Amino acid sequence: MSISKKEVEHVAKLARLELTEEEKTLYTEELNAVLGFMDTLNQLDISHVPPTSHVLDIKNVFREDVVEPSMEPEEVVANAPAAKDNQFRVPKIM
Q1: CB neighbour class for 74 (10 Å; exposed up to 12, middle 13-18, buried from 19)
Q2: Most buried among 30, 60, 92, 93, using CB within 10 Å?
Q3: Is 16 left (phi over 0), alpha (psi -120 to 50) or beta?
């Protein structure tokens, strides 16, 4: 697979980029190099490689969701500037 200079011009037009002739030539060569490398990668046999989402074996650390004793509601709102019925009172927004 390769990309032509005309396709680079089309993409540049869609992106509203004004490219010089040298830039068009450069980007065409660079994109073709990237596509060539992708073709090389596609030739690899990766049937024995399991799919992964990350290169490192990282897992989230979860803990059991256990209900534990907490502070008393009165103690939680003790230092609040405004509270009513053990709930924080906030200014009305709308």
Answers
A1: exposed
A2: 30
A3: left
pTM over 0.90: no
CB 6 within 8 A of CB 31: no
Residue in the block written with tokens 């290169």:
55
**C-alpha–C-alpha distance, residues 94 and 76, integer Å:** 26
Burial degree of 58 (CB within 10 A; 0-12, 13-18, 19+): exposed
Report the distance separating Cα 86 and Cα 72, nearest Å. Answer: 9
The string of pLDDT tens digits covering residues 49-80 is 888 888 888 888 898 999 999 999 999 999 99
Angle between helices 21-42 and 5-14 (to 10 degrees): 110
